[in-house]
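W.,

You were right to be curious about this one. When I first looked at the sequence I had no strong expectations either way, so I just let the prediction run and decided to look at it fresh. Below is the sequence, 214 residues in total, followed by the output.
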Amino acid sequence: MSDNTVSRRTSGAARNARPDAVSARGRPREFDTDTVLAEASKVFWRQGFHATSVDDLCNATGVLRGSLYGVFGDKHGIMMAALDHYADKAIAGLVERLNANVPPDVAVRNALLHHARISSTLTGCFITNSTLELQPEDEALHAKIRAIQRRVVTLLAAAVIRGQAAGVFNGDLDEKTVADFLLCMTQGLRVLGKCKRKEDELKAIVDIAMRALT
């Protein structure tokens, strides 16, 4: 594939690039970062880090190796940026579900049911899959996963506090511990889902988890 071909594919994205899509050297990037990271996430999610080659990423994103390296450094850098992109999208969805105009217990249950539904598709979770593949050897990934988990736990703890204030959750429970429990539930559902569990089976687990909060 020639540089001219890539330029034609990406010229539209470059024209519409945001101000933050400018490299440190002042040259506009020739691709839309969000689009590239979304495609890279799919590849890493499907194949794992070690089984993914840079050529796989180039083919999926339509961006040349040098352009990817110029922005992200190397394959590991692409992976780390893809995890951030995936986490931001996932957490935005969690915020929406937890802050929905429904009772606090319903909001938490809906958040867990979301994981039960998508877990039954056998895809697992990009973050969970990456954690199982690369930790504990990868210290940079470990730090990133911990940071993502802290964001999720903070949101879940706030939802638990709202439920306690509304009288639908046991007020004697420590909200941080409950939030960690719910995080374990969401990640556990994703792992179980990869073992060909039916959605109804995963929903039954959610029901038991919710009873533990009352």
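Here's what jumped out at me. The CA atoms of residues 95 and 155 lie 7 Å apart. And, maybe more interesting for your project: The radius of gyration is 20 Å.

Coffee later to discuss?

I.
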